[in-house]
Amino acid sequence: MAKRWINGDESAKQMLGRVLKERPLLLLPHPLHRIPLVVSNIVEIVGPSPSAKTEILLQVAVSCILPKSWNGVQYGGLEHSVLFLDLDCRLDIFRLSHCLKLRITEANRLHKITKKQKGFDVSNHIPEHQCKYDDMDLFTECMKRFSYTRCYDSFEFLAALKVLHHKLEKERNMDGSGVHVLMIDNIGAFYWINRGFSSLPQGNPNRKNFSLQSVFETVVPEIKKLLLLHPMLVLATKMVTYQVKSSYSSWVSGVASEVNIGKGTYREYMPSIWQSFVTHRILVRASDDKRKLQDRVCYLAEWLLPALNLTDEFVVGDAGILMSL
């Protein structure tokens, strides 16, 4: 096997085709559009509350579960399955459903306009009731690609990771492709609970203390094992405290530290094993700009890892995330 690999010969085009097939690029919607991502990347979406972190996950999920095309209509989706681990237990599934239906309706509207511009008579082309049936079939197929698990503490989170291999194998056997995106909303949700556990006296002195550090010493290897068998893009949100730069003391905790970014700072509290595991990091926060944008809050997005010398503005509308002009 090694000799055949050494003696193998392929052109650059063949090599790129093979690599992109094994690790396809995932072009995600705003504000994650600046950097092409591939499976096995670990993307951390950092920001205070509220800063539209969960909304970003929802819009990425909609783009992933939508097909590229359906019955001749272009929907521009990635046609990938998504696994959502909700550690905050606050996901609004009706918001996901609403955005998905709006995306389907908008794509159908644009398709009719395009057909009309090309001279096709679309008034009696497809009966209205048939369009509704087709939309419902498409909606059902899309929602089949979205899998949701809620965790109420670190024990349930660890248990969910332990059984994911079986779940992903089942998904792969059903559709032949498997899950491509793993979402974790909010990776630091149980920080204070774990910190409280670590301060309690341990019954067995030989037993390892339960703490945030010990939890992630198990979480990170479990995710690594999953990625080896089921290559996925991991998107994890993390709630932090963001402040305009001023003189204040950092946390007493051994893992907490201040991270300077732009005109402010945020407090990093995750263990180093998780921080070194992350390959990409983006900071999102509400803008201080007081201008009115149809009563919408304007948010800022800035890539920290890799560092990009630009900041994107976006707003959250009824149909999803829109770039601010």
Task: Based on the model shown, name its key terms.
325 residues, nine-stranded mixed beta sheet, 9 helices, single chain, alpha/beta, globular
Helix content: 25-40%
What is the name of the CATH superfamily?
Answer: P-loop containing nucleotide triphosphate hydrolases
Main sheet makeup: 9 strands, mixed
What would you call the structural class? Answer: alpha/beta
Gyration radius, to the nearest Å? 22 Å
Which CATH class applies here?
Alpha Beta
Q: Looking at the chains present, what oligomeric state does this protein adopt?
A: single chain
Q: Strand-and-helix sequence, N→C?
A: HHEEEHEEEHHEHEHHEEEEHEEEE
Mean of pLDDT? 81
CATH topology: Rossmann fold
What this model shows, in words?
InterPro entries: P-loop_NTPase, XRCC2. It comes from Cynara cardunculus var. scolymus. The chain is α/β, with parallel strands linked by helices. It has a single domain, classed as P-loop containing nucleotide triphosphate hydrolases (Rossmann fold, 3-Layer(aba) Sandwich). The protein is built from nine helices and 16 strands. The strands form four sheets. It has a nine-stranded mixed beta sheet with strand order 7-6-8-9-3-13-14-15-16, sandwiched between helices. Helix 3 crosses helix 4 (93-117) and helix 4 (93-117) crosses helix 5. It starts with a helix and ends with a strand. Residues 16-20 and 246-254 have low confidence and may be disordered.
